[in-house]
Specification:
The complex is a heterodimer. By secondary structure, chain A is an all-beta fold. Chain A has no helices and eleven strands. In chain A, strand 7 and strand 8 form a beta hairpin. Chain A is globular. Chain B is globular and about 40 Å long. Classes of the chains: A mainly beta, B mainly beta.
Chain lengths: ~120, ~110
Amino acid sequence: GAVVSQHPSRVICKSGTSVKIECRSLDFQATTMFWYRQFPKKSLMLMATSNEGSKATYEQGVEKDKFLINHASLTLSTLTVTSAHPEDSSFYICSAREGPGHYGYTFGSGTRLTVV
Amino acid sequence: QKEVEQNSGPLSVPEGAIASLNCTYSDRGSQSFFWYRQYSGKSPELIMSIYSNGDKEDGRFTAQLNKASQYVSLLIRDSQPSDSATYLCAVNLISSNTGKLIFGQGTTLQVKP
């Protein structure tokens, strides 16, 4: 089946630094990728939708300058948390689907970000 | 009104019983519905997808969809302690041309030995 690789799985960074999270589709071309964040005991909150070769579409309330998304190829999307602060500490998960008409959504294993 | 709603639970059932998980959604034109299971600290894993009214069975799991009532459910037969997890209902909103999935808040299931 389709596999999405996400790394790093865990990262600890100092407040004010930037962190990049990668999401790769290993055996299919992902025209669309989604980025979610999840707080403890809460559900997944969609942050943004990225389409290969175009700008990401951010959900209401998500700061696009803080959460930079790049989807430069059909197999790679990155999320960069810029100038991270402790309140950005969360579980970030990416998801990908192959394209319109493909109903399956494959999730990465998630990245636990801790900002100290 | 939330787009996808679930009872957060916890839902506690004895081992071997049937667990019934429910979900309602607000977008009447939604086409695709998914149930995911999530263990603590892990990412969601797909259990079932359903697209048309009625029941869909896969092993111990049965998904039920009623579009008229905007309701989707998941039944787990012969519940096992290993089924203890959070179950997330997700809906592909027809109003979104990007195909984004919106999740409910999840229902925590506890299966007691």
